[in-house]
Amino acid sequence: MPLGLLKYTLQRKYQGDRYFPAYRPLRGTYDVAIIGGGGHGLACAYYLARDWGISNVAVLEKNWLASGNTARNTAIIRSNYLTPEGARFYEESMRLYRSLAGELGINLMYSERGHLTLAHTDAAIRISRWRAEVNQYLGIDSELVGRRELARLCPELNLSEDVHHPVLGALYHPPGAIARHDAVAWGYARRAMESGIEIHQQTEVNGIRSHDDGSVELQTNRGPITAGKVVQAVAGASSEVARMAGIKLPIRSVPLQACVSEPLKPFLDPIVVSGSLHMYVSQSTRGELVMGGATDPYPLYSTRSTLDFTEGLMANMLELFPFLENARVMRQWAGIADMTPDFSPVMGMTPVSNYYIDSGWGTWGFKATPVCGRCMAELAATGKVPALMRPFELERFNRMEQIGERGAASVGH
């Protein structure tokens, strides 16, 4: 242990600044109330203060800070989506991520590793080529690679043809990255609170009522508040909270499970994904293999873990990395994914005046944190939908203008 760290540990008085201000009681009125203290809600609060000078804002979190899907995701960041709307949106988010650590003054452990989406069939090769062409047209670094190049990029990968699902090639996305998800939330929260924004933990919204003057009243377990505008950002509970406001969302909520291995000596640099095998894996800076797969096949509001998931995932992991047969799984958990029919988010205005929604993120919400926070802040401040998020508005389902992103979002994370 370095001497400086030892001396710091033995001090009687903590010398650093308090990361978050002390507890504050709820006030009666706010310009903006944000339901949900995860990454998206906290980012929205930060950009409201930074870009629009709006600091009379309350962020309401029913548990502790970032305790929902922000703390339960597997922290993959990429922009190699299939539709132009999705690819543009996530590419802007990646641009924001690259400078976010310096802006927030916190080490996000942002690490560009490269992202490999394996193709095991001729159909998967065609889709990979399609995605690569869309990405390249939009200026996104993405290409289809064959087995020879794949062996160079990930020599640990089992490319034998004597397996159930031989690898034929892959979609390679060099900027694909991972980051420390809780640090993203903490960084946004700290900077927001330094601007005067209030963050109230253990504050659950249990009733929503709109008034004739356009304001919205929120009933909480700590009493009522009234806000000029409300932003809902509650991944995993979007349908239930929206229902309190009288809004029906086209969302199906299902568990999404993940797990990590014991720490291993670093060997896996790229992020490896297989839609056919329903698995993905990356290695953290601590050496753990962070692994996951497809969502559970049935709607459920429960974050329990199942043996069936673990057995299925490990069988597919060992087909790609057979030398891991003796590695041990250390932790397993689940989050709740809000899935839409077209595998794209629902953002923007709702039928309720001054009530805005940020929902339907399914398995891909973490990577959108900066751009979604900035766009939702602009919407709340101006009442106008930013062009970048206009394709994802709720009204698209009435117009039958869905954004078919399943081919790039269903298991890619």
How many structural domains in the coordinates? 2
Number of helices: 12
Low-confidence stretches: none
Structural class based on helices, strands and sheet pairing: alpha+beta
Please state the CA-atom Rg, rounded to the nearest Å.
22 Å
Q: How does this model look, in words?
A:
This protein is globular. It has 413 residues and is of the alpha+beta class. It is built from twelve helices and 19 strands. Strands 1, 2, 9, 10, 11, 12, 18 and 19 form an eight-stranded mixed sheet that branches. Strands 6-7-5-14-15-16-13-17 form an eight-stranded mixed sheet. Strands 3-8-4 form a three-stranded antiparallel sheet, with no helix packed on it.
Would you kindly provide a brief summary of this structure?
This protein is an alpha+beta fold. Helices cover 29% and strands 24% of the residues.
Name a few traits of the molecule.
globular; 2 domains; eight-stranded mixed beta sheet; D-Amino Acid Oxidase, Chain A, domain 2; 413 residues; alpha+beta; FAD/NAD(P)-binding domain; 12 helices; 19 strands
Write the layout of secondary structure elements.
Elements: H1 3-9, E1 29-35, H2 39-52, E2 57-60, H3 69-72, E3 76-77, H4 84-98, H5 100-104, E4 111-112, E5 115-119, H6 122-137, E6 143-145, H7 147-153, E7 169-173, E8 177-178, H8 181-194, E9 198-200, E10 205-210, E11 216-220, E12 223-232, H9 238-244, E13 252-261, E14 271-274, E15 279-283, E16 289-293, H10 307-320, E17 329-339, E18 346-349, E19 355-359, H11 369-382, H12 406-409
